[in-house]
Amino acid sequence: MKIILTTLLLFSCLVLQAQRFKVGAYLSGDSLVVAERIPAKKITQLYYTFVSVEKGQVVSRATDSINLAQLNTLKAIHHTLNVLVSIGGPMGSAGFSEAVGSDSSREKLALSILSYLKKNSLDGIEIHWTQKARGMFGNAFNGKDQHNLVLLLQTLREKLNAQSKLDGRKKKQSYLLCMNGSSKRQYLFRSELNVAHQYLDYINLETFDYKVEILNAGGVSSTQVTGHHSNLFSSRSDSWMRLCVNRTVQEYLNHRIPSRKLMMGIPFYGQGWSNAYEDVNGLYQWAENRLTGDLSYKNIVATYLTQPDCISYWDKQAKVPYLYNQKNGTFISYDNKKSIRKKTRYVHRHRMAGAFCVDYRQDDHNTLLKPMRRGLRRIRLPFIFF
């Protein structure tokens, strides 16, 4: 009898560990959503993007009510699916700074968010405040933005907790509060996330676009040098910034943010350059221009990997692939099944909350989403078995 009970206990522990990790995906609301095409079985959290902040409150688009109604039909079928709305984004964050500037304005914005959540039967929200230095690109700027963001999150947490009780939601089913987390070091150093995280369920790390973002921030045109844009570890070929997913995660951990609240971002698209030098098969080499066409994973497979002169390479240190066409100098950084398996193992090893993809519709028949889901559902035997 003891053997049977011990076996059942171990099995239940393994199942719980397999279910612990979250699988998120972003879905744009710019066009009408087709619910039947959403791989709801493979996702635990769906982020509907983006709702703007204007004049101190959230602003709906004409398609929002239709799309969110479609997503609610999915929730009725797939009970483990949570649908959240992402508020802000690159084009919808301009009104944040003013909206969080005072107690009364934060109250107004929080009530507007709560009303939107209730109206559309959502499971939570993600604050996706895209902050630009000194008000660049039309986004307003205030030196107290980071502190005011903490106060907004505190207000939202209180209101969401109260609403969860009113709606009879148990603790594990309470309304979720998340936010995006930039991989830019200057953002993290001036942020107050070491305080703000207590109000958050998850922080979605933007562990992608490294090469593009940091070169712009460093004052060097991102069109000139190739490189990995979502590498797990730093590459020996990168003699400059050595940015990678591991470095971002470690910086957040060093700011005393619990790993159980961190979600790793995995891009289902690539970044590319043309006319790159041949050394190291184009990796971290000077190039002439950035590629501006469709670099979704599905198009990389259909258009580039089918070319006879296009060869896919594997960076053993960075744990990611890249492709290079020696004939015309085309270089593309991207993720594949192998790199995603490496990343999900990293999530396990560091006891993170899970991972999310951007955007799942860029996948090629769930070629990337399947290993992502399986990797995060993988059963790991307790230490005593090794």
Reading off the top of the CATH hierarchy, the class is best stated as Alpha Beta
Count of helical stretches: 12
Radius of gyration: 21 Å
Could you name the CATH homologous superfamily?
A: Glycosidases
Might you state the CATH topology name? TIM Barrel
Overall pLDDT score: 89
Indicate the low-confidence ranges by residue numbers.
11-19, 133-137, 381-386
Q: What number of structural domains do the residues give? A: 1
Silhouette: globular
Total E-strand runs: 14
What would you call the structural class? alpha/beta
Described by strand count, sense and barrel closure, the largest sheet is: 8 strands, parallel, barrel
Strand content: 15-25%
Structure characterization notes:
This protein has 386 residues and is of the alpha/beta class. The chain has a single domain, classed as Alpha-Beta Barrel (TIM Barrel). The chain contains twelve helices and 14 strands. It has helices at 2-20, 64-77, 96-99, 103-119, 145-166, 185-190, 193-196, 210-217, 245-254, 297-304, 337-349, 369-377, and strands spanning 22-28, 45-54, 57-59, 82-88, 124-128, 176-181, 202-205, 262-267, 271-274, 289-290, 310-315, 320-325, 330-333, 354-358. It has an eight-stranded parallel beta barrel with strand order 1-2-4-5-6-7-8-14, surrounded by six helices. The two termini are 25 Å apart.
